[in-house]
Design goal:
The chain has 10 helices and 5 strands, in the order βαβαβααβαβααααα. Strands 2-3-4-1-5 form a 5-stranded parallel sheet, with helices on both faces. It has 2 domains: about 110 residues, P-loop containing nucleotide triphosphate hydrolases (Rossmann fold, 3-Layer(aba) Sandwich); about 90 residues. By secondary structure, the protein is an alpha/beta fold.
């Protein structure tokens, strides 16, 4: 089953999606959670999301994070749309600024569509401070921005999504503070952190705080 999150207000669309994810995980803590973006979206990973079941969980919640950012991933999602809709697993498609034709096509198969468009009132600006702190490799400031984000009501899943997006952005564009190999290692570390949090050894919220303070 599909839940679509889209709209012209990118920050609010992302916030709504990850707040919804956090609420869904709270209702079903034993459900398996996965987030796919960029190169991690493939026909195989999508089919795995459709069919995944395990010994200790019966359903999977998977977030497809901006799958329409490239033509290849867009084609994969649209081709498998009927299977995603028919799956008993929950597929949340996070797609800010999605073309109207695609909204109509996906919306026709979705359980629910959340639309959040820009309004005159500007969104609060902590998001740039958060990712800039990571980009500057400033551990203390990053920790403060993570704590601030939690206090303002943002889910750990949203914060993790922004940090992982920034790591991939630095891999592609380069960074003085994060040479290519280190940016790639950062991306892998964030993926592993999310995976480890699923085992409940350390919840994602405090795990992100500890991760921030470990940067050097």
């Amino acid at each position: 089953m599909i839940y679509l999150f889209h709209g012209s207000d990118v920050n609010k669309v992302r916030a709504k999606a990850f707040q919804w994810v956090a609420a869904a995980r709270a209702k079903a803590p034993d459900a398996y959670y996965s987030r796919l973006d960029g190169d991690s979206i493939s026909p195989q990973s999508l089919r795995d999301a459709i069919s995944a079941q395990g010994l200790f969980f019966s359903k999977t919640l998977v977030v497809l994070d901006d799958p329409f950012s490239t033509a290849d991933t867009a084609d994969m999602v649209l081709e498998l749309l009927p299977e995603l809709a028919a799956s008993q697993n929950i597929v949340a498609i996070l797609a800010p600024k999605l073309l109207a034709a695609r909204v109509k096509k996906i919306g026709g198969k979705a359980e629910k569509v959340f639309t959040i468009d820009s309004v005159a009132k500007p969104a609060r600006g902590f998001n740039s401070a958060l990712v800039n702190a990571l980009g500057a490799r400033d551990a203390a400031t990053l920790w403060k921005e993570i704590v601030k984000a939690y206090r303002l009501g943002d889910a750990p899943e949203m914060v993790h999504g922004l940090l992982h997006w920034k790591s991939r952005d630095m891999m592609q564009k380069g960074s003085r503070a994060w040479p290519p190999k280190q940016a790639r290692a950062l991306s892998r570390a964030l993926i592993e952190l999310l995976s480890d949090s699923r085992g409940r050894d350390l919840e994602l919220g405090p795990a992100l705080e500890r991760f921030a303070l470990s940067l050097s």
